[in-house]
Amino acid sequence: MEGKYAQDPVQEHNQRVPLSPFDTRQSYAAPLSPLIGGPSFPGKDYPINEKKHLSALQVYEKQPIPVPKPAASNPRPVVLNKSLKFWTWFSPYRQMLLLVVAVEAIMVIITLLGGWHFARTHLPAMVTGNLLVAIAIRSEWVMRFLYWVSIKLFRRWTPLKVRVLVVAILYHIGGLHSGCGIGAMMWLLLAWTYHIMNKDLYHSLVMASLFVSMIVVVATCFVATPLVRAIHHNIFEITHRFLGWLGIITSLIFVIVSSWWDVNTQSWRTSSRYLIRQEEFWFMIAIIPLIIGQWITVRHVPVVVTAPSSKASVIRVPGGLTSGLHTRVSRGGLKEWHIFGSISEGKHADCHYIVMAVQGGFTRAMNKDQPETLYTKTWKPCGLPYFSRLFNRGVAICTGSGIGAVGSTCIQHGDWFLIWIGADLEKTYGSEFINFIKSKIEPERLLIWDTKGPLGRPDVNVELEKVYKQWNAQVALFIGSPALNKSVLRTSRARGIPVFGSIWDA
């Protein structure tokens, strides 16, 4: 939806229908099944035994529900101009990436021109310092600490704009990871240039370790580019992990041998006192626990995989979780790991659920094989919904299996409203799972829209703004496809609604 605001007849009709549970009028509704609450559909009176057009129909009268705010009129059309499109594309992730790369490039140029003596004489420290920051930002231990601190510091007293800014920075902090990775590559290239220019001064072992480290880091950065990552995602996952480990090892070797080689006497001085004086050595020491910390909580656990359809699987994993945490799972424990949103009633529950859409080889095999055990990491990473604690009221809107990311937020926090949109939801995810969601979230803050129902596809932007205003929300979270994510972010920016969506290029 760009430029001119256009809709098909079904979408236009949907806008005229009071779809929110805030509506106090009594009207007939036609949900797809007794398990799925549907929106009001005035003018249509379906008898309960009608089966000609719909698999299951139910006629009921909506009970009056207290309205916290008068219903808003239909949102006005918006024009998505070039400036709005650019600033939506130029997300905090890209802003942070550009800023870090620009600063690193300027420092490299100044050093190359002879204007920064410290960097010229401490090139290994510049490389390893960037590697340390890049790895720390991807550490689940570090990120959970940063998320937790931000919530404790900013939840109660800061203005809404400040809290939104805090979320934008931390949620898109992957730009710092990517920027420092590129920075390490640039400093390595500069170090290699200086070593080649003065190759007679360095031992072949120093040159070899530097060369291998440079090649590995350059290859890691190349494979992580959005184009390669999108087309060959499995290759990216494998190379980013194993090349990353190789890069750490070769960089550590380079740090050790370069500190032990004396260019003045052209001899080795293999004493620890020379090593411990080097900043780069301590940077590398700090990296080691960050790497090990990612793996010490790996466990092989029993799971229950159900496949209500060929399009999705629902996996029951032992242990309850607080809202906003995700789960990493693997069938091998080393080669291939995948992260999914997790639905749980709370940290004291006996299990949590993963909703897995069938989209690739791993998820397809899970749906078909339904294994009884999986590897998982008991220390869970934080996701976008973890920031729900910063806001008094919010709206979480998702499509399809996106329910896995935001379900816990609306189950565990009574001030959050859930909109779940999808096709054949009961057939795809099973009546048991649908019933679980309905039983844990009160009807007055739940809207489940099945696009195969009589109302067809909704205009997501229209429904989001309606519920956002009626619910008196402070922020909205959206989990959906890249195309719909782009549309929601653009339109919401134009309407002044703070919305955070999925990141597809971080």
Entry keywords:
506 residues, alpha/beta, 5-stranded parallel sheet, 3 domains, 7-stranded antiparallel sheet, Rossmann fold, disordered N terminus, Elongation Factor Tu (Ef-tu), domain 3
Characterize the largest beta sheet: strand count, sense, and whether it forms a barrel: 7 strands, antiparallel
- How many strand segments? 14
Percent of sequence in beta strands:
5-15%
CA-based gyration radius: 27 Å
Helical segment count: 19
Which residues form runs of ≥5 with pLDDT under 50?
1-72
User: How do the strands of the widest beta sheet line up side by side?
Assistant: 3-9-6-7-8-5-4
Distance between the termini: 24 Å
Shape: globular
Structural class: alpha/beta
Share of helix, binned: 40-55%
Number of domains: 3
Mean pLDDT: 85
Detailed description of the structure:
Helix 2 crosses helix 19 (482-495), helix 8 runs antiparallel to helix 9 and helix 9 packs antiparallel against helix 11 (233-260). It is globular and about 85 Å long. Strands 3-9-6-7-8-5-4 form a 7-stranded antiparallel beta sheet, with helices on both faces. The chain has a 5-stranded parallel beta sheet with strand order 12-11-10-13-14, with helices on both faces. A two-stranded antiparallel sheet has the order 1-2. The protein has 506 residues and is an alpha/beta fold. The protein contains 19 helices and 14 strands. A hairpin with a 7-residue loop joins strand 7 and strand 8. It has 3 domains: 9-71 and 384-500, Rossmann fold; 83-293, no CATH class; 303-377, Elongation Factor Tu (Ef-tu), domain 3 (Beta Barrel).
